[in-house]
Structures are given as C-alpha cells and as structure tokens.
From TrEMBL:
Keywords: Metal-binding, Zinc. Signal peptide: none annotated. Belongs to the UPF0587 family. This is DUF866-domain-containing protein.
C-alpha cells in the first residue's frame, strides 16, 4: 500500500482557498500499473462518494478499482475518510498538497484539474463557485 499526495500549484491574485466546488468532485488522474508499468491511455475519474467492490476481499471496497489491460492485475485506490481536502492557499505558485489517496497496485502519474472549483476573494470574502481550471487562466470580479 502506498499513500500518494496530490500537490498543486497556482498563481492566485486577490483570491485564496482554491478547492473543489463540491464533495462529489470527480478527480481525473492518469493511472499506471505498478506491476508491469503500463500506463492507461486516458484519464480516469475517481470521487469520494462512489465505492466499488474489490474482488478477492471480504466486503472490501475502494473508491476506484482498475484492472490493467496489459497484465490483468486488479488494483484499487481509496480516499482516507478522515483526511479532509486542504484548500490551496500557498503564495507565489509554490506547490501545496491538497489530497491524499491510498493506492494498491497502481500509481496516479498525472492529474487533470477539469471540473468546477471554488475560491474566496482575499479581501471581500466573496465565494466564487464556478472556477473552471480547464483553461490556463481564470478571471472574475466581485
């Protein structure tokens, strides 16, 4: 079992506390098998609300279950229920961990920030609930 931390970096101007907009946020990762090192060609989605059965385990569940197309081994990933998502508040684009996932038989080797995020106006406290990070820059006003 390996615990992977996702660290992100962003240049925040006049906003802070960048984080996913909802608890059922879909995280998109590129996944690699730790047995044969095969990397899945597409990003896969994982979220904290969906659980799937892990074969071979007594009532074992994970948030993501994947069978490698090359070596056919089953792998899984699970969010730690006690670990909260940490809003990104770093300055100057420094990396900051925001998420931790327990992985068995796989590694997440790439991250795509698609989906809706939210942040807070640094001075006004206004919450911006529809931050789209699929483009290189996001701008709004309050």
């Amino acid at each position: 079992m390996v615990r992977l931390k996702l660290s992100i970096s962003a240049t925040l101007e006049n906003v802070t506390a960048l984080q996913p907009a909802s608890d059922d946020f879909e995280w998109f990762f590129q996944v690699q098998c730790t047995s044969c090192r095969e990397t899945h060609p597409k990003h896969v989605a994982i979220n904290r609300t969906e659980e799937h059965e892990v074969s071979g385990g007594k009532n074992a569940k994970a948030h993501f279950v994947w069978r490698c197309g090359n070596c056919k081994r089953e792998s899984s990933a699970k969010f730690d229920p006690s670990a909260r998502i940490t809003p990104y508040t770093a300055e100057n684009g420094n990396p900051q961990p925001i998420l931790e996932i327990e992985c068995r038989g796989l590694e997440f080797v790439g991250f795509d920030p698609r989906g809706m995020w939210k942040c807070v106006g640094a001075e006004s406290g206004t919450v911006f609930n529809e931050v789209d990070l699929s483009e290189p820059e996001w701008v709004d006003y309050d």
